[in-house]
Specification:
about 425 residues; mainly alpha
């Protein structure tokens, strides 16, 4: 395994741990990080959390766990090709959605509204909180949880937005599930100490190279796979795209200001990819095989273009804060177009708009009743956080941590038990 560019500081953990005394093959610190995320309870819960369509809607569509596994595979392969550590990039990809609450970005938007009095809510900041505080694995000398106690390099790679809420730009754009973006930031105020530790030596807001690989892998995976899910569900016919309407959605959601005479040639390029369908999907094994080969070719197309552009940009090494990933304009446009296809034909459909409204009503009712009845109705760990909280803001954060930990199904069950409707 290539470890060039990684030093002892990159392998350091926030809480020092004694050597492992087990009769097993020795693993590197980064391999241990990956194992800790794989075995985390927060990872298992992703199987019952919304990706684009709810996991209860169809047994074919992606949920947050299957999406994360696919992102991890793309990230690992791309990292290996570029020369950064595959375990770091893969672990960041496996962890990148841990902070998502029930109902995906729709739930994130709702919790952000309830969190204005305690520093906001953001899925990536919640991921850091899970990894460094909420997930039980390591306890410090002061008795406080250090979460999974991952290495500095891995935690940095998991940090998609390395800045506080007060330093964030105004929100813009729309997420893949149709929800308007919240303010994007990567750390809550009471998690700043561990954030400063993991960013030691890097006072700017630049992401490390492995975080950039994770972010691109996420973009590539969901742009391609959301379209695949939409085709199989019968909502998207790639052979009959309404270009004017599609381009309006693409501009409104992902590529503001990009004109039709730019989007048109970009879509021509996608439609020229071998395997792009010439007719409607019919559900046959032959059609599904063609669709799977198309998704594979598109992922290879995007990752290959990024690899070539990155190698052309600098001599390397492509690790940590020594380089930046380069995404060519053609790839950026094509990825944006695929996201727009899913947005236009799936997320703007009337049934999805109505479902998001119901989800917000349910989750808001649950937050309200838990704020009123805490700590009695909270699980033990969150009730303990509530009782130790120094002020009302910290107590509200404990309640939001509890709600964010729930799956879609458990949020519904809690609502039925506590609200009764």
């Amino acid at each position: 395994m290539n470890t060039e560019g990684y030093d002892d500081a990159d392998r350091e953990r926030y809480v020092a741990e004694p050597p492992k005394r087990v009769a097993a093959p020795e693993r590197t610190p980064f391999e241990r990080d990956r194992a800790r995320v794989v075995h985390a309870a927060a990872s298992r819960r992703l199987a019952a959390k919304t990706q684009v369509m709810g996991p209860q809607s169809d047994d074919f569509v992606r949920n947050r766990l299957t999406h994360s596994l696919e992102v991890a595979q793309v990230a690992r392969d791309l990292a290996r090709a570029l020369g950064c550590h595959p375990d770091i990039a893969e672990t960041a990809a496996l962890a990148h959605d841990l902070g998502h609450p029930p109902f995906g970005h729709n739930g994130e938007r709702l919790l952000a509204d309830w969190a204005t009095e305690c520093g906001g809510f953001e899925g990536n900041a919640q991921t850091l909180r899970i990894l460094t505080r909420l997930e039980a694995k390591t306890v410090g000398a002061d008795g406080a949880s250090a979460g999974l106690n991952l290495t500095r390099a891995t935690l940095d790679a998991c940090t998609k937005y390395p800045w506080r809420r007060t330093d964030a730009a105004p929100p813009s754009g729309v997420h893949a599930d149709g929800t308007a973006a919240v303010v994007k930031f990567g750390v809550y105020d009471d998690d700043v100490p561990v954030f400063r530790w993991l960013r030691e030596g890097h006072d700017d807001t630049g992401r490390c190279f492995e975080a950039q690989v994770m972010d691109l892998a996420d973009d590539v995976a969901y742009s391609v796979h959301d379209v695949e899910d939409g085709v199989v569900a019968g909502r998207i016919d790639l052979s009959r795209l309404d270009r004017p309407a599609l381009f309006e959605t693409v501009r409104g959601w992902y590529l503001p200001g990009v004109a039709d005479d730019v989007l048109g040639p970009a879509l021509d390029g996608l439609e020229a990819v071998q395997g792009w369908p010439s007719g409607a999907y019919d559900g046959s094994r032959r059609a599904l095989a063609r669709l799977k080969n198309l998704t594979s070719d598109l992922i290879g197309r995007f990752c290959g273009a990024v690899q070539d552009a990155t190698f052309d940009s600098a001599p390397g090494p492509f690790v940590r804060h020594r380089a930046d990933l380069v995404v060519p304009e053609r790839a950026r446009l094509e990825i944006g177009l695929l996201k727009g296809v899913a947005a236009h034909y799936v997320m703007q459909a009337d049934d999805r708009v109505a479902a998001r409204a119901r989800e917000r009503e349910l989750l808001g009712g649950l937050v309200e009743v838990l704020l009123d009845r805490a700590p009695d109705e909270l699980e033990t760990a969150y009730a303990d956080d509530w009782r130790r909280a120094p002020d009302d803001a910290a107590r509200r954060r404990a309640v939001l941590d509890q709600v964010a930990s729930l799956t879609d199904a458990s949020a519904v069950a809690w609502h039925q038990r506590l609200v009764g409707r």
